[in-house]
Amino acid sequence: MERKDFISLFGENFLSEYEYVNPLEQFEDYFFHKPAYGPIKNYRELALNKCIKEKVDFTSTHNSIYELTERLVVVKCPICNAEMEQRGGGGSRGFTSINYDCKCGTKISISLEDSAFNVEFKKED
Predict the structure, then answer these.
(1) pLDDT the model gives residue 104
(2) 121 with 56: CB under 8 angstroms?
(3) Where are the beta strands (DSSP E) in 35-94?
(4) In this structure, are residues 99 and 109 in contact, taking their beta carbons and an 8 Å threshold?
(5) What is the signed CA dihedral for 1, 47, 35, 26, rounded to 10 degrees?
(6) Rounded distance, CA 46 to CA 121, Å?
(7) What string of DSSP letters covers 13-25?
């Protein structure tokens, strides 16, 4: 998203110094750094909720990819076809591994690039 477009939608309170911005990253930064008494623990969820509520297109980040996969990805066990449960993960800037467990004992780990998801909302006419 162009910097000027972001400012027109949300003002400069949320914005960094970059010309092109990822709204999700800007909201993560805002909710992490702005509270008077330190970071809000669920800043990732607040940032995702803000993007979704405002229907502003965004790309996943290293901070939010885990939370985003909880909302978007359903993994089925290759053995019993049951829905697997997301059970942690980790990584650093670049890639994140997300672990899934099945009741039958099968485990799967999926590695995703931080920008693996691009969410685009339907434009209103």
Answers:
(1) 97
(2) yes
(3) 58-59, 85-92
(4) yes
(5) -20
(6) 18
(7) TT--S-SB--HHH
Residues 51 and 86 in one domain: no
Q: Which two structure tokens, joined as six digits, stand for 93?
A: 């800037």
Q: Is residue 124 situated within a structural domain? A: no
> Which amino acid, one-letter code, is at 85?
E
Outline where DSSP puts E strands in 2-94. 58-59, 85-92
DSSP E strands in the chain: the ranges are 58-59, 85-92, 95-101, 107-113, 118-119
Q: What is the pLDDT of residues 8-53, one digit of tens each?
A: 766 666 555 655 678 898 888 888 877 666 666 788 898 999 999 9
Is 122 in a helix, a strand, or coil?
A: coil
Question: Which of 47-51, 83-87, 88-92 is most confident?
Answer: 83-87
Q: How many domains does the chain have?
A: 2
Task: With respect to residue 7, please indicate whether it lies within any of the assigned structural domains.
Answer: yes
pTM, rounded to two decimals: 0.73
